[in-house]
Amino acid sequence: MDNFGDDRLKQIIKSELDQIKPDAQAENRCLREIHKKIEMRSGIMKFSKKRMVAALAAMCTITVMGTVTAIAGGKITGLLSSSSRDEVVHSKAELIQLAGNQMGTTPKLVDAFSNGLSFNEGSITKVEGMDENQNPLITYPEVYAGYGENNRASLDIHEHQDMIPLGSSVVKKQDIYQDITLKACEDNYLFLPPDAKPSEEDSKLEEEGKLMISYGSDKEERKVYRYVNWSENGMDYLLSSFDDLSCDDLIGMAKEVIDAK
């Protein structure tokens, strides 16, 4: 993306943000979606100059769900997730019912973790895998479950997709539980207003893959995103948090999900 295009996109984002005041829950959810987009694209682009520009304003309301579809050829370079606040449920039982209806399977969920984080809200999101020309290559439903106040922790579950490439995050810790491999990662984020520019030091860290920079916040903010992922019975699980939960905390919570009946 050239400088003119980058600046123009930032202006558009700022204009949209002036009209949207998301609550803390929506913001945390959006930050996780931003991570999935940037982390996967960075794995493909190796942090090239084509920076992924993401914004809190990019919350769509597409609610059509369907089975997994694929188009032959092409390579996925980005993910587009969409959901509607009108489709949010507030009990694990309701979410499991939605998953059964729209995914044809029942993923593992817990009502509450031993650390006190309880189920807060959930939904089924539509995810599209796009090629470099923004053509959709696959479409699949994904379960989202938020736990704790303002969704301190998030659990995302979808059927395994062979077409989706692995991200580039460095594994900080790995554990094996009941023959299931748990991988814990963390990434450093810098969120900037649409019209802001990162410092030379931060730009260098981004080039080295040590910092992910995203635009769309109302102020400069630094966050650490930690997550644990694993696969079980053909389903991919990702338990994550932008809060103070450590990799060890998330691994312990992941084991509770695995133990769920």
Write out key terms for the chains shown.
alpha+beta; 5 helices; ten-stranded mixed beta sheet; 261 residues; single chain
Description of the molecule:
The structure is a single chain. The protein has 261 residues and is α+β, with helices and mostly antiparallel strands. It has one domain (3-259). It has helices spanning 3-17, 24-45, 92-103, 200-207, 247-259, and strands spanning 69-70, 78-82, 119-130, 136-147, 153-159, 171-177, 180-192, 212-215, 221-232, 235-241. Strands 1, 2, 3, 4, 5, 6, 7, 8, 9 and 10 form a ten-stranded mixed sheet that branches. 33% of the residues are buried. Residues 40-72 have low confidence and may be disordered.
Low-confidence stretches: 40-72
Q: Which structural class should the secondary elements be placed in?
A: alpha+beta
Number of strands: 10
Shape: globular
Radius of gyration using CA atoms only: 18 Å
Mean pLDDT: 77
* Oligomer type: single chain
Percent helix: 25-40%
User: Beta fraction of the residues?
Assistant: 25-35%
H/E order of the elements? Answer: HHEEHEEEEEHEEEH
Domain count, please report it: 1
Query: What is the count of helical runs?
Result: 5
What is the straight-line distance between the termini? 47 Å
Largest sheet: 10 strands, mixed
